[in-house]
Amino acid sequence: EVSDNKIGIKLCIKKASDATVQPKKPNRKRARKPKSLNEDSSDETGSPEKRNRKNEKPRKTNNNTEKRSAEEDYKPPEDQSVWANQLPEHVLHMIFKNIVQDEGSVPALIRLSRVCSTWYKVTQSPSLWRTVDLGSWTKDRFKTEPKLKWLIEHRLQHATEVGLGKDMMRIASVGEPRATTRGLTLQFRFHSDRYVGNWKITNVQCVLDKLYEFVPNLVGITLTGWKALTADHLMFLVQNFKRLESVDLSSINAEVNANKTAVGQSSLCNAITEMGSRLTHLHLAHNRLSGIPQIVKALSTHCPNLVLLDLSNVSTIAISHGILHIEQLQQGCQKLKILRITNSHINLSTATLQEQMESPGFPALEELSVASLADESRLFNDEYLQRILKTSTQLKLLDVRGCSRLTHDSLIRLPTWDLKHLFLSGCSLTRDVSSGLELIASKWAHSLIEFDLAWANATKPLDDALKALADKGSESPLNHLNLCGSSVSLEAVKEVLANCPHINSINLASCRGLPRGVKRLLQGEQEIAELRENLGVTLKRPPVKSPRDD
What we know:
The protein is an alpha/beta fold. The chain has 20 helices and 22 strands.
């Protein structure tokens, strides 16, 4: 019924009286009649199709079961390729040996073994299993104690470097994630103390005995995440493996029973004294250490051949910072090439002027990483940098990200002239209008392959530094440039793109002075070419030679 209304139309709906609601049909379940014995027997004899159809019904399985059965039932194909039939096995062995030297035994040999039966046979040669990383490439369901013992007995007899630690993702402590070993910031949680480096091992000593029996020529071992490793286990390693030179004890000390852990003060000092001149690489990252002065004294006294010392993300049991006697370490470890104290609760000790003058420095040092977060950024200053690098003429990598007390004067006075990797993001000199960024870029423009200027907000010094890099033209080896979050101008970016032919990666994310569409990370020749095309830039000079990233 429709009624007239000046404002609008009013609809009145009246329910019909004759409308009847139909009752719902009750849900009836048909009861299954029990079959008699005669009916069953007649059905079995008379209709085998039904029985077969029922038996042939596919069994439901999940994806994990199917994948597991496919891997376990894998058989090499019978039809062999030309490479397998015509190439002698000793030639394949030489080819595989070169591959293993470049990529490691795992996963290279695993992938090669799946090609054909001949390749599978060659990959089983124990002489190819030299450098083996079982922590990164082994699936979790295979990380059991029997499987590890089997691998030690049948695959690692000729191994010299074995990685049994947890797969740790290497991330720089300041700035963007990087695929390097500087600045470890990840912390790992383990479900139980029985999980040793993510391996389900109940008896650590039994595994070490198996290593000693079948891998006597071990040179380097990685035990990252082995929280059950005690001081006795570490002493067993250093006493029985006479060729052991490199030990990775990153992230192994537990919060409880700190005195019994392998990275306790007495445990480390005894192990260092026992190894003596054999020790060349020592990784202690991600640990809570005590007695850092005593550990440094043991290294400087007994380890003259030390090449690498990693103290990244080290905290101290005490409230105060750990004291690092750098002059003492310089006196005893003249061959040190890599020093990492990234984001660590460590401070350099005070030294008199005479001690600093008598110290020989680190003449062979090639990498120094002292990057820090906001809490530790005010500890490292110009004096500390000069004390460490006063004779380091061969320095190739310098990471001082987050060090807010550094100035450009200390960097310019460094004795090195062929620096290849420089990371300055977060430093105060990238935010100072009167900073000498241009002088720094000019000093190493001929050698810099990687330059990090992220979050630099001083526009003029930043633009001048980029133009100094561009002035080298085709001789510039610059390959990676990080300008993330900086106030760089569009003209400076065009200068770099037009004059640096080897550039392969440039990060322009969050750059306020650039147009939309280019403010992102660009990698590879294709993306760099598209960036030049979008900005209307033409490469002025072809590259003279490809840079070598040592």
